[in-house]
Amino acid sequence: MKNITIPMFNVTLNINPIAFHIFGIPVYWYAIFIVASIALALFMYYKKSGTFGIHYEDILDLSLILIPVSFVCARIYYVVFNLKNYSSFLQMINIKDGGLAIYGGILGGAISAYIFCKKRKISFLDLADYIIPYLALRAKCWKMGKLYKWRSLWKYYKSSMENGTRNKHGSTICTSNVSLRIYCRFLNILNLN
C-alpha cells in the first residue's frame, strides 16, 4: 500500500498498486490504465471513422500490428540502453520487473504505421492527422496509470523538489514529493504545465 496525501483537499489515499489477481498473477493498476487508454482511443477512432478517408477497419487492422510491435520495440529500446544490466536473453525478455521505453514504442509504432500505409495505399500524413489527437488523449490516461506505478517526471520537476513547486506568481503550491506527483498529474491532465 502506498499513501498519497493531497494537502489541498486534506485527503490521504491508501493505494495498492495491484488491482486484483487472476490465477495468482497480479494485475496492476498501471496495466489497467494502459488497456483502458487503448480502448478509449479505439472508441474515438470508431466515432471518427471515415475522416481523411480512413475507416475504422483500417485502424483495427493497424492496431493489431502496431500495439504488439510498439511494446516489443519499447522493450528492445530499453534493453539496448541498459544492456549492462542483463546477462542472459531470458532476463532481456522478462518484463515482470519493468523496462519499457516510450521512445522505442513511438519509433516502432511510427515505422509499422508507415509500412502499413504503404501496403494499404493510405497517406501516412492523413493517418497521422487522424490518430495523433487521440494518442495525446491516450497518453493522458497512461500518465494517470503512472501515478499508481509511482513513476513521475522527476527530471522535469527535479529542480523544484527542494523548495517546492512554485506557480507563475512565485507561490509554493506543494512541498512534498508525494504532493508534487499528485499535482503534476492533475496539471498534466489539464494541460496547465
Keywords:
7 helices, globular, 12% strand, alpha+beta, two-stranded antiparallel ribbon
Briefly say what this structure is.
The protein is an alpha+beta fold. The protein has helices spanning 29-47, 56-81, 89-93, 102-120, 124-149, 154-157, 177-190; strands spanning 2-6, 11-15, 18-22, 25-28, 165-166, 172-174. The protein is 59% helix and 12% strand.
Describe this structure in words.
Helix 5 runs antiparallel to helix 7. It is built from seven helices and six strands. Strand 1 and strand 2 form a beta hairpin. It has 193 residues and is of the alpha+beta class. It is globular and about 50 Å long. Helix content is 59%, strand content 12%.
Termini separation: 29 Å
Q: Which runs of at least 5 residues are low in confidence (pLDDT < 50)?
A: 150-169, 171-177
Could you report the average pLDDT, rounded to the nearest whole number? 75
Task: Give the assembly state of these chains.
Answer: single chain
From N to C, what is the helix and strand string? Answer: EEEEHHHHHHEEH
Shape: globular
> Fraction of residues in helices?
55-70%
- How much of the sequence lies in strands comes to 5-15%
Number of helices: 7
Q: Which strands sit side by side, in order, in the main sheet?
A: 1-2
Rg of Cα set:
19 Å
Largest sheet: 2 strands, antiparallel
Q: Layout of helices and strands, plus pairs?
A:
Elements lengths: L1 E5 L4 E5 L2 E5 L2 E4 H19 L8 H26 L7 H5 L8 H19 L3 H26 L4 H4 L7 E2 L5 E3 L2 H14 L3
Helix pairs in contact: 1-5, 2-4, 5-7
